[in-house]
Amino acid sequence: MSTIVFHSQPMSVYLWTATLAAEEKGIDWSVNVIEAGSATHRALNPFAKSPVLEHGKVRLYETLAIMHYIDRAFDGPALQPGDALGQARVLRWASLVNSFIFPTMTNGIAKERLLVPSQGGKTDEERVAEAVKEAEIQLGVISADLETHPFLAGDKLSLADCFLFPHMHFLSMTPEGQALLRHFPKAAAWLDMMRARPSFAATDQLARRAA
Q1: How many whole angstroms separate alpha carbon 160 and alpha carbon 158?
Q2: How far is 55 from 74, CA to CA, in rounded Å?
């Protein structure tokens, strides 16, 4: 049995964030697929969000709490800086992803361009156009932080990078995301660097489902 089990829908961006952290930490993990909003899901998390971490008798939901637990409960490379400012930067990025980037890059662009048509729906072009405007601002903020260090919170990969990566990856799969990234080479280079890490191939749920 795996050291950590994540209960989740396999294509959840927050599952990807959590598995990236586990992989970077060197922890054995697996995914138990559950149906979104089902009774099983709500028994694990009353708010029916994913993922839920299970480690022995420990059960946790909310991705930031899960990530903090993964970093502090296990040996391996530290995924949070030791200084107060570095830790604040990590928390800032987790908040930015949850509050702004997820609604814009993932829900506003990637889901509208990739998921909605695949399910027979029609893309909301107005929603995409508005999201592109917001994503441009967000990419400017990302690029500004990458001006002074290779990763979002400093010289080493941290939980901040794990939080952002899935959203940027799916954004880059859309025409709008590709056009935006051409204007933000720092962000594009960071994305390429993250994809080159072994943790990317180990946690890419699209590739795992196709295998």
Answers
A1: 5
A2: 11
- Dihedral of alpha carbons 180, 185, 190, 192, sign: positive
Residue for token pair 């028994």: 43
Total number of residues shown for the chain = 211
Question: CA 193 to CA 32: how far, in whole Å?
Answer: 29
Q: Report pTM.
A: 0.95
Contact 128, 180 (CB under 8 A): no
- Token pair of 87, please? 């830790």
Spatial distance between the Cα atoms of 42 and 30, rounded to a whole number of angstroms: 20
CB 29 within 8 A of CB 23: yes
- The 3-state DSSP class for residue 107 equals helix
pLDDT single digits (tens) 11-39? 999 999 999 999 999 999 999 999 999 99
Q: What is the pLDDT of residues 58-77, one digit of tens each?
A: 999 999 999 999 999 999 99
Quickly tell me which residue has 């029916």 as its tokens: 48
Mean pLDDT, rounded, for 109-117? 96
**Contact predicate 33/8, CB 8 Å:** yes
The three-class DSSP label of residue 6 is strand
Residue 207 pLDDT greater than 70, yes or no: no
Q: Whole-angstrom Cα distance, residue 133 to residue 123?
A: 17
Distance CA 72, CA 161 (A): 17
Cβ neighbours, 10 Å, residue 197: 16
Q: What is the pLDDT of residue 208?
A: 60
- Give CA–CA dist 11/209, Å, rounded: 10
